[in-house]
């Protein structure tokens, strides 16, 4: 018995190039009678077809596999385009090979990283955020696509790139974040900051460091 893998697809077109790339965050998996994993998702842009080589990126070492089937509403297709809700059959992938937080992507379009700088807005108490400031060394959860990843705020800067010692609720700052595991991420990607099960901030990656 193999498994179903539930994905949420975010397919992004490259406007400056005559090709498309895609990124499909892994959400969950469950048993199925099919021979190989079928990750279902919704294409937001681009094209995926049988025979395409794809990478599973993040958390562990990047692994390459092949799309051997495309399914939509219990019908087998040769390909799928933006807007389609589909399942993708992947060759040679078992349950032990996947984990929440990984993504499925076209080879070379996205890579795993552990350290980045970001612009962050910290929610006020009235917005459901923290009641008190935090300092460098703060270790919240960073919600990236479909999973929470623990990370450490290693540096804090104000809008003039001057080092700050603390962040107050309602502040908008630049910070450097180091994650405990590599995650597929890129410049411009948005994320949420969580603590104790609630969202306390929101940010966007400004640059990749490592």
TrEMBL record:
Keyword check for Nucleotide-binding: yes
Gene Ontology annotations for the cellular component aspect, listed alphabetically: mitochondrion
GO MF, any single term: translation elongation factor activity
Pfam families reported for this sequence: GTP_EFTU_D2 (PF03144), GTP_EFTU_D3 (PF03143)
GO biological process: mitochondrial translational elongation
Record InterPro entries: EF-Tu_GTPase, EFTu-like_2, Transl_B-barrel_sf, Transl_elong_EF1A/Init_IF2_C, Transl_elong_EFTu/EF1A_C
Domain Translation elongation factor EFTu-like: 46-105
Sorted UniProt keywords: Elongation factor, GTP-binding, Nucleotide-binding, Protein biosynthesis, Signal
Signal peptide annotation: 1-16
Domain of life: Eukaryota
Transmembrane segments: none
CDD domains named among the record's database cross-references: EFTU_III (cd03707)
Domain Translation elongation factor EFTu/EF1A C-terminal as annotated: residue spans: 109-208
PANTHER family referenced in this protein's UniProt entry, alphabetically: ELONGATION FACTOR TU, CHLOROPLASTIC, ELONGATION FACTOR TU-RELATED
This protein's name: Translation elongation factor EFTu/EF1A C-terminal domain-containing protein
Species name: Lotus japonicus (Lotus corniculatus var. japonicus)
């Amino acid at each position: 018995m193999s498994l179903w893998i539930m994905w949420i697809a975010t397919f992004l077109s490259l406007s400056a190039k005559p090709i498309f790339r895609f990124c499909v965050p892994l959400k969950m998996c469950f048993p199925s009678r099919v021979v190989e994993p079928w990750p279902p998702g919704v294409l937001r842009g681009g094209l995926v077809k049988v025979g395409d080589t794809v990478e599973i990126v993040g958390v562990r070492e990047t692994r390459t596999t092949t799309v051997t089937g495309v399914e939509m509403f219990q019908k087998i297709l040769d390909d799928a385009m933006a807007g389609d809700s589909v399942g993708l059959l992947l060759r040679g992938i078992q349950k032990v090979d996947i984990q929440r937080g990984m993504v499925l992507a076209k080879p070379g379009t996205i890579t795993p990283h552990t350290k980045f700088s970001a612009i962050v807005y910290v929610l006020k108490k009235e917005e459901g955020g923290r009641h008190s400031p935090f300092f460098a060394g703060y270790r919240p959860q960073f919600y990236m696509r479909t999973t929470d990843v623990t990370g450490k705020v290693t540096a804090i800067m104000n809008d003039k790139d001057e080092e700050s010692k603390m962040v107050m609720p309602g502040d908008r700052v630049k910070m450097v974040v180091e994650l405990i595991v590599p995650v597929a991420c890129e410049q411009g990607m948005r994320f949420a900051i969580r603590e104790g099960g609630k969202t306390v901030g929101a940010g966007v990656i400004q640059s990749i460091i490592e």
